């Protein structure tokens, strides 16, 4: 969000805080999917089901020790550019965000077939890493490793920002977003599988996709997770033939 200067008044601030806190709970509607963001105002919200994907670079701090700033810029630009392209290439995508070197997205997935389509997005992101590393190798750039976290569940969708300033954004809060972020943080470390799925997401996959994953109990996450090193077959064939 781009800033646009406005003087600050704590008296006006107090009024805005009171107005927000006085809003009735009935303004937050429970739904089976994620409505269009155009339906959001500063006084309502939706509690709907969705899928979330987080993709995080492993040991990103170590990149600064290996490469100079111009090369680092190229690494991050190519990684973020193409991961966003993969995450955005699903007709049910609701939101794509960049936070530092992490890229994440939220998808409207009311049907099980929609959840399998998000599984395909995760496999393409994992295959994209092979494509990126193929290009990096030709430029003597160290290979990247990633962690991908995916889950399904309910999320609170609200519009938040400074009313009247045009500085606002849609915020997604809830267990599904938090869990996907935690899964991404754990995935791909210590030679673990690069993609970790939560039980809510796994339980809605078709038999073929669920059969590609390995079950594991994770003490830190406090439950079962399902992991794999899945790739997009057609894309992977092209990458291996060309790199």
Short description:
38% of the residues lie in helices and 28% in strands.
Any overview of this molecule?
- This protein is an alpha+beta fold and 243 residues long.
- Helix content is 38%, strand content 28%.
- The chain has 8 helices and 9 strands.
- Strands 1, 2, 3, 4, 5, 6, 7, 8 and 9 form a 9-stranded mixed β-sheet that branches.
- Helix 3 packs antiparallel against helix 4 (112-138).
- The longest helix has 27 residues, at 112-138.
- The mean pLDDT is 90.
Oligomeric category: single chain
Shape: globular
Average pLDDT: 90
Give the radius of gyration.
20 Å
Q: Count up the helices.
A: 8
Low-confidence stretches at least 5 residues in length (pLDDT < 50)?
A: none
Distance between the amino and carboxyl termini: 38 Å
> Could you tell me the number of beta strands?
9
Q: Please indicate the percent range of residues in DSSP E strands (runs of 2 or more).
A: 25-35%
> How would a textbook summarize the main sheet?
9 strands, mixed
Set out the fold topology:
Layout: H1 10-21, E1 28-30, E2 45-57, H2 63-66, H3 69-88, E3 93-99, E4 102-107, H4 112-138, E5 146-162, E6 167-173, H5 175-186, E7 195-197, H6 199-202, H7 207-210, E8 214-218, E9 223-228, H8 233-242
Helix pairs in contact: 3-4
Name the descriptors.
38% helix, alpha+beta, 243 residues, nine-stranded mixed sheet
